UniProtKB/TrEMBL annotation:
<dbReference type="GO" id="GO:0015629">
    <property type="term" value="C:actin cytoskeleton"/>
</dbReference>
<dbReference type="InterPro" id="IPR028433">
    <property type="entry name" value="Parvin"/>
</dbReference>
<dbReference type="GO" id="GO:0071963">
    <property type="term" value="P:establishment or maintenance of cell polarity regulating cell shape"/>
</dbReference>
<keyword id="KW-0130">Cell adhesion</keyword>
<dbReference type="GO" id="GO:0003779">
    <property type="term" value="F:actin binding"/>
</dbReference>
<comment type="similarity">
    <text>Belongs to the parvin family.</text>
</comment>
<dbReference type="InterPro" id="IPR001715">
    <property type="entry name" value="CH_dom"/>
</dbReference>
<dbReference type="GO" id="GO:0005925">
    <property type="term" value="C:focal adhesion"/>
</dbReference>
<dbReference type="GO" id="GO:0034446">
    <property type="term" value="P:substrate adhesion-dependent cell spreading"/>
</dbReference>
<dbReference type="Pfam" id="PF00307">
    <property type="entry name" value="CH"/>
</dbReference>
<dbReference type="InterPro" id="IPR036872">
    <property type="entry name" value="CH_dom_sf"/>
</dbReference>
<keyword id="KW-0206">Cytoskeleton</keyword>
<keyword id="KW-0009">Actin-binding</keyword>
<dbReference type="GO" id="GO:0030027">
    <property type="term" value="C:lamellipodium"/>
</dbReference>
<feature type="domain" description="Calponin-homology (CH)">
    <location>
        <begin position="88"/>
        <end position="195"/>
    </location>
</feature>
<dbReference type="GO" id="GO:0030036">
    <property type="term" value="P:actin cytoskeleton organization"/>
</dbReference>
<keyword id="KW-0677">Repeat</keyword>
Length: 360
């Protein structure tokens, strides 16, 4: 058997000195790396401090936004505008419109940027609105295929819209990069051109950040804010009456009151104020039943609505009855009628007056 001899103190001390030497080298290396990182971070902070005044702090620039050729530029929506209430309202109206148009295709859009960038929904929307079939692949997964589809769709859109004086502020690259301003501009252009049965919020504008590299040698980014108008006014005859001819407006209101009472009196109902008495939708539903000569079951609407949602339900249901009667979908929104918007209520009633004025 072998005996295990105790280690000598001298050998142990030598190994300790060796370990300390190794730790010292390791510690020195780590310290040098830390100092190097600190210097690098300091240089980056200095570079940022120099360039910071050129780029607004509210803008969130992603790496791809800064990869620009000399004198090239990139545009993006300023984050503060993304939270604008009117912009959100416009997006909601456009989403509802697209979903309504593509209901038969079983397409549901929830987000304009994520759902429209690849061209699939835009293709179906254009084909539905124009009645024209595009020669494109139905499903494309690759980026090249998606851009080819977008190219075909946008060429068809531009061919129609440019004839009517529209400036096309969208492109394949902008749409595919999920540029919200370009996508909304395209949808607004389509809605206006095809006279969509929607009421677009008026005077919606946003702040767009334009980033540009002016001197390639130092790579300095210059950013400026530009106001982009997405919708203007959609003034029509009622806008003109309200704003410029109040005397004639009163004549129109009296004619409409006479028209609706001619029919509502059959149910012993009387209207004296157009802007308030149609706001809960009850009279609209009953009026449609009288004009089309049928009884509307009471379980289809709220006879005594108690909240905003029930009133909107009633007005929406009345709009459905109008469409069932062969009328176009009203451009006014149910919410506008409920919110006592006089122009919206007048548009709805005038549409009924035009179609049923000779109805006994």
């Amino acid at each position: 058997a072998l005996l295990k001899l105790p280690r000598s103190p001298a050998g142990k001390a030598a190994r300790m000195r060796k370990d300390e030497s190794l730790l010292g080298k390791l510690g020195g290396s780590l310290a040098r790396r830390k100092r190097s990182r600190e210097v690098s971070d300091l240089q980056e902070e200095g570079k940022h401090a120099i360039n910071a005044p050129l780029i607004p702090s509210s803008a969130e620039l992603h790496p791809e936004d800064t990869l620009l050729e000399e004198n090239a530029e990139r545009t993006m929506l300023d984050p503060t505008s993304r939270e604008d209430a009117k912009l959100k309202d416009l997006q909601r109206v456009l989403i509802d419109w697209v979903n309504n148009e593509l209901e038969e295709e079983r397409i549901i859009v929830k987000d304009l940027e994520e759902d429209l960038y690849d061209g699939q929904v835009l293709q179906k929307l254009f084909e539905k609105l124009s009645g024209r079939k595009l020669n494109v692949a139905e499903v494309t997964q690759s980026e090249i295929g998606q851009k080819q589809k977008l190219q075909t769709v946008l060429e068809a859109v531009n061919e129609l819209i440019q004839h009517h004086g529209w400036s096309t502020e969208w492109s394949v690259d902008l749409i595919h990069s999920k540029n919200l301003v370009a996508i909304i501009s395209l949808l607004v252009g389509l809605a206006v051109h095809f006279q969509a049965a929607v009421r677009l919020p008026e005077h919606v504008s946003v702040q767009v950040l334009v980033v540009k590299v002016s001197r390639k040698k130092d790579g300095v980014l210059h950013a400026t804010h530009v106001t982009k108008e997405l919708t203007t006014t959609t003034e029509d005859a009622f806008d003109t009456l309200l704003d410029h001819a109040p005397d004639k407006l009163n004549i129109v209101k009296k004619s409409l009151i006479t028209f609706v009472n001619k029919h509502l009196n059959k149910l012993n109902l009387e209207v004296t104020e157009l802007e308030t008495q149609f706001a809960d939708g009850v009279y609209l539903v009953l009026l449609m039943g009288l004009l089309e000569n049928y009884f509307v079951p009471l379980y289809n609407f709220y006879l005594t609505p108690e909240n905003f949602e029930q009133k909107v339900h009633n007005v929406s249901f009345a709009f459905e009855l109008m469409q069932d009667g062969g009328l176009k979908k009203p451009k006014a929104r149910p919410e506008d009628v409920v919110n006592l918007n006089l122009k919206s209520t007048l548009r709805v009633l005038y549409n009924l007056f035009t179609n049923y004025k000779n109805r006994e």
